[in-house]
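Below is a filled-in request sheet from our internal design queue. Each sheet records the structural input a requester submitted and the sequence that came back. We keep these sheets so that new team members can see what a complete request looks like end to end.

REQUESTER: design group, bay 2
PRIORITY: normal
MODE: inverse folding
CHAIN LENGTH: 210
BACKBONE (tokenized):
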């Protein structure tokens, strides 16, 4: 782990850091430049953040796009308190304004099964926008249940349970500045997966905060 993380007690709950602050920062900057270059002169995309996970990525991406953009939010939920999607997308908050004729850029922290994005894309296409594109910081293509190809991807990752930089487990860890793999002991505590027989959890002697 890097120096910044030594001040962050929550980092003790990580098995390992997958993406450091520097790596994320550099990639988000590249994504912003690519997004900017792909819109025509005068086009003012409407960035739509999918709450809550995308809030950290969105706030950085926004500042990496050197043109006028508008901002709105949608809130969905599919995960509950578990590590796997329930498979059912619920719309908790809709956009504030009509989007007919607008260039929509949906901004996600992670695409897993693709169910959330497929649902949102279908819903928004019916409102006749000029275009819909998708930017996601993380993509787990191996987990797809619905075919979906995002237009801009920060990092393709394996099927690991990651937290930090907006991504949560049971609403925790969103404020970690890095993206890391959560220690199994931390989600086993929530009863996500029973520990193997004879394997003590030993949380205290490893200093976890979970
Ligand atoms: C997560 C993530 C995406 C969705 C991706 O949201 O932020 O919106 O799951 O999964 P999918 O591709 O399998 O649909 P979550 O429901 O956990 O809510 P949150 O953003 O508030 O953490």
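RETURNED SEQUENCE:
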């Amino acid at each position: 782990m890097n120096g910044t993380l030594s001040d962050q007690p929550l980092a003790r709950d990580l098995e390992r850091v997958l993406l450091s602050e520097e790596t994320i920062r550099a990639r988000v900057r590249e994504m912003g430049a690519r997004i900017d270059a792909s819109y025509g002169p005068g086009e003012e995309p409407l960035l739509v953040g999918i709450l809550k996970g995308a809030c950290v990525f969105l706030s950085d991406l926004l500042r990496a796009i050197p043109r006028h953009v508008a901002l709105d939010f949608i809130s969905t939920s599919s995960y509950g308190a578990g590590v796997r999607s329930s498979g059912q997308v619920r719309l908790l908050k809709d956009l504030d304004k009509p989007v007919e004729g607008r260039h929509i850029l949906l901004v996600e922290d992670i695409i897993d099964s693709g169910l959330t994005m497929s649902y949102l894309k279908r819903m928004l296409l019916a409102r006749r926008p000029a275009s819909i594109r998708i930017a996601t910081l993380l993509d787990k293509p191996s987990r797809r249940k619905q075919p979906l190809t995002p237009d801009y991807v920060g990092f393709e990752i394996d099927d690991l349970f990651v937290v930090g930089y907006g991504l949560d487990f049971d609403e925790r860890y969103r404020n970690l500045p890095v993206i890391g793999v959560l220690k199994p002991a931390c989600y086993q505590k929530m009863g996500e997966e029973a520990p193997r027989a004879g394997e003590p959890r030993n949380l205290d002697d490893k200093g976890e905060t979970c």
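SHEET NOTES:
- Residues 21-38 form the longest helix (18 residues).
- The chain has one domain: 3-206.
FILED BY: M.R.
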